[in-house]
Recover the amino acids of this structure.
């Protein structure tokens, strides 16, 4: 068997690239379906190549084994990501709740997040950048303003991506594919913002892994909805908000959910401006959702 990485998957066929750069189109063994495991872009796999179209020989090869994953993102469904590049833009209007959820997924999987504000050349970009930096300063999330059109900070972004597997994720229309085109000279299909509803048009339909020297990047379809589908004890939600950490031992009650408890140090810090109020407000919305799911976990 040979070893490689899945770089794209469509219609039950998986393209695997070996260390020499050779690509093979493969099918997955039926055992994965029985195990309820789906091969993902980014998976390191063992495979047997096909033997071509000669009579009596197997045309397509097979994915035989999926090697242990370092991380797994549920949406976009990709594996072995080390850097999650969350892309927003002045238009369409940033969905900060979506950003918060992606950050939770990143920290749960021990993935380093990077928040990228694309289209820095558009009106409203400065305001969006200032808001992002204010909201996520306490969480120690790096915010990088770039422009695929003007080239602003694209070289700096490249330097942030080296040495790992990076996944570009976020809403449709924020310019993920356009940004990859500008960074690496690709010709990915790109789209515009719908003038009627001010939402992005999804032009990337499948996740795909690209390699450029020591930079490996996964481009993914945009999306607008993301649910915290894993049911967990609501008190654990606070662990994915790094800006709460300095106040954890200062609350009157332990454990403290940082909801409406008297003597909560996080609430006090928010009142004093040390924790961004919009970030705390969205945390409370997610906390309510987690509590509801936890109550209904056996229904």
């Amino acid at each position: 068997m040979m070893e490689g990485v899945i770089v794209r998957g469509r219609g039950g066929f998986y393209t695997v690239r070996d260390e020499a750069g050779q690509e093979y189109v493969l099918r997955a063994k039926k055992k994965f379906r029985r195990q309820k495991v789906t091969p993902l872009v980014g998976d390191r796999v063992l495979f047997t190549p096909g033997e071509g179209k000669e009579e009596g020989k197997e045309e397509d090869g097979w994915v035989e084994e999926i090697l242990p994953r370092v991380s797994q993102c549920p949406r976009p469904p990709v594996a072995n990501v080390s850097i999650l590049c969350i892309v927003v833009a002045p238009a369409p209007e940033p969905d900060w709740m979506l950003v918060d959820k992606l950050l939770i997924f990143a920290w749960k999987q021990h993935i380093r997040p990077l928040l990228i504000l694309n289209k820095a050349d558009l009106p409203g970009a400065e305001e969006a950048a200032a808001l992002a930096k204010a909201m996520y300063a306490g969480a120690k999330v790096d915010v990088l303003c770039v422009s695929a059109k003007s080239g602003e900070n694209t070289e700096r972004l490249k330097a942030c991506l080296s040495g790992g597997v990076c996944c570009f994720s976020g809403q449709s229309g924020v310019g993920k594919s356009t940004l990859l085109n500008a960074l690496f000279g690709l010709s990915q299909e790109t789209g515009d913002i719908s003038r009627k509803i001010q939402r992005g048009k999804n032009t990337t339909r499948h996740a795909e892994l690209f390699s450029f020297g020591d930079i490996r990047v996964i481009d993914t379809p945009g999306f607008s909805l993301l649910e915290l589908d894993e049911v967990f004890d609501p008190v654990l939600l606070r662990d994915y908000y790094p800006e709460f950490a300095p106040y954890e031992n200062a609350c009157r009650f332990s454990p403290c959910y940082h909801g409406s408890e008297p003597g909560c140090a996080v609430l006090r810090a928010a009142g004093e401006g040390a924790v961004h109020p919009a970030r705390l407000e969205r945390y409370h919305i997610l906390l309510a959702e987690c509590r509801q799911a936890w109550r209904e976990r056996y229904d």
The longest helix spans residues 277-295. Residues 234-295 form a domain with the Ribonucleotide Reductase Protein R1; domain 1 fold (CATH 1.10.40.50). Helices lie at 31-34, 96-108, 125-136, 154-161, 176-184, 265-271, 277-295. Residues 83 and 112 are 5 Å apart (CA to CA).
